[in-house]
Amino acid sequence: MRRNDPRQYDDLSGEWWLPGGTFAMLHWLARARAGLIGEPPRPGALLVDVGCGGGLLAPHVTGFTHLGVDLGDTGLRLATAHGVVPVRGDAARLPLRDGCADVVAAGEILEHVPDWRAAVGEACRVLRPGGLFVADTLADTWISRALTVHIGERIPNAAPKGMHDPALYVPPRELAAECARHGVEVELRGLRPRLGPLIRWLTRSRRRTVTEDTETPAMVPVRSVSVLYQAWGRKSG
Q1: DSSP 8-state assignment for residue 178
Q2: CA-to-CA distance for 144 and 208, rounded, in angstroms?
Q3: Contacts of 2 (CB under 8 A, 6+ apart)
Q4: Which phi-psi region, left, alpha or beta, contains residue 83 (left: φ > 0; alpha: ψ -120 to 50)?
């Protein structure tokens, strides 16, 4: 398959919720994303989860009407089993009306779409005034490309080969500017995994659960946004 081919997720469908599986770090990222989302702002608040995959955000965002948008039927079936309302759709053309969402989450999706600017525009379009936008993605930098592709794909048990196309990585400043263009002023911060959970994951010695079973998150914030980073902010108006 070519790089970033979405069919890879169908081939790896058994890994989404597998304890100690390939997607363990995505569970860690989902928890970090949920920490920025917080509690629902009102009863029945709508959370639109763009690129929801297998629904990994679901255990961390209770109280929302959790709507997941994805192109993959396999991922949507898994997300549905975890309480997500499934919608088959493209991140760059969301089948939703303007201003319908209290929160839009775009977790690990912007670096997978051909036009990340269009996806950001759509996320901001469906967000109501005062609504919250939260995203995490990979930076378009040499160190990000080196760690995730040139090094990461050579480490046994790490990321599957071809999962990312570094040509699609997202420059942090450009992401902030694009959000601002659509009325959402965002803050940025970097993320990195803690060394202990990362080593256990890479050595496959962590077979307890793919979600974290301690009070200490596996992902921690850092100042640098040169590799993996989060963006969050509210829509004006």
Answers
A1: H
A2: 29
A3: 162
A4: left
Angle of the 195-202 helix axis to the 24-37 helix axis, nearest 10: 150
Among residues 18, 49, 22, which one has the least CA distance to residue 136?
49
CA 19 from chain centre, in angstroms, equals 19
pLDDT tens, the chain, 237 aa long: 789 888 888 888 888 998 778 888 999 999 999 999 999 999 999 999 999 999 999 999 999 999 999 999 999 999 999 999 999 999 999 999 999 999 999 999 999 999 999 999 999 999 999 999 999 999 999 999 999 998 988 887 777 888 899 999 999 999 999 999 999 999 999 999 999 888 888 886 544 444 444 567 899 999 999 999 999 999 998
User: What is the pTM assigned to this prediction?
Assistant: 0.93
**Torsion angles phi and psi, residue 150, rounded to 5:** -65, -35
Which of 101, 120, 165 shows the shortest CA–CA distance to 138?
165
Cβ-count burial 4-37 (b if 16+ within 10 Å, e if not): beeebbeebbebbbeebbbbbbbbbbbbbbbebb
Q: CA angle, corner 229, sides to 101 and 80, nearest 5?
A: 45
- Name residues whose C-beta falls within 8 Å of residue 139's C-beta, 6 or more positions apart in sequence: 169, 170, 171, 172, 225, 226, 227, 228, 229
> CB 237: neighbour CB atoms within 10 A?
9
In order of their start, the domains of the chain are 7-235 (3.40.50.150)
Query: Angle, to 10 degrees, between the axis of helix 116-126 and the axis of helix 172-181?
Result: 40
